[in-house]
Design goal:
The protein is an alpha/beta fold. About 25% of the residues lie in helices and about 25% in strands. The protein has one domain: Class I glutamine amidotransferase (GATase) domain (Rossmann fold).
């Protein structure tokens, strides 16, 4: 089921480059004067996308991988390397990465102590982290990961169409979102409400599921010199293929990379 509303379009940095006034006549530099070099184009954000699972495996993983690859190709704003192998998340690989994305991961992934130290160092040192949906159902026995992603999954009491509201309309990841919007999703609750330690961007309207309480769904935080973004949506293929989700994901990649 597709969402009924759409977010305002996001114009990538790659699109902005090259826009401007029409070109005038070609200018020939004076003899002996070197031509002024053109400014370099903005470097693409390098994303390492992990979809490994050691527990429940979402049917939407192939769609998630396909959508992110398509966004990279279409927007030109980032490149993506997708992997199912946790062994590929190493200090050397992270040195050539701007954003580490855990998409629909689950369970106690087999990272060794060196890999864990590399991930913490990467984020603290200015790297970006993005977690999607069951990224919070991952690595419960590693507290540093819980700090990076922002919370741990508790349960999903509602799988239905419900309303999502914006908590921070000014943040660039969700700027222009038309809320409330309705979506069919598997809505998460968490072992500890992260509000107060993170900047909540989106939350579930409790009235739309006949409940009371505060149910954050998407948030950002700074960790050392790095940035972390989490979005609890993404259980179904339809979420990944809808344009609003794709636009916020593209914006989140740019934001997490500090662009």
């Amino acid at each position: 089921m597709a969402l009924r509303r759409r977010w305002a379009p996001i114009v990538s940095a790659a699109i902005l480059i090259g826009c401007g006034s029409p070109a005038g006549p070609a200018q020939t530099p004076a003899p002996g004067v070197p031509p002024t070099p053109s400014p370099p184009s903005a470097a693409q954000v390098r994303v390492l996308m992990l979809t490994a699972t050691a527990g429940f495996r979402h049917d939407s993983i192939p769609t998630a991988r396909s959508v992110v690859a398509s966004l990279a190709s279409r927007t030109g704003a980032f490149t993506v390397t997708a992997t199912e192998d946790p062994r590929e998340v190493t200090a050397a690989r992270l040195a050539a990465t701007d954003v580490l994305m855990f998409a629909l991961t689950t369970g106690e992934l087999p990272f060794d102590d060196g890999q864990k130290a590399a991930i913490v160092s990467f984020v603290n040192g200015g790297g970006g982290f993005i977690g999607i949906h069951s990224a919070t159902d991952t690595l419960y026995q590693w507290p540093d990961y819980g700090r990076i992603v922002g919370a741990y999954f508790k349960e999903h009491p509602w799988t239905q169409t419900a309303s999502v509201i914006a908590d921070d309309r000014t943040h660039p990841v969700i700027a222009g979102v038309d809320t409330p919007f309705r979506i069919l999703e598997e809505f998460y609750t968490f072992q500890r409400n992260p509000r107060g330690s993170v900047n909540v961007l989106l939350s579930l309207d409790p009235r739309s599921v006949g409940a009371d309480g505060d149910f954050p769904l998407a948030w950002t935080q700074s960790i050392g010199s790095g940035r972390s973004y989490y979005n609890a949506l993404g259980h179904f293929d339809a979420t990944w293929t809808d344009s609003w989700f794709q636009r916020q994901l593209t914006a989140a990649i740019q934001w997490a990379a500090g662009r």
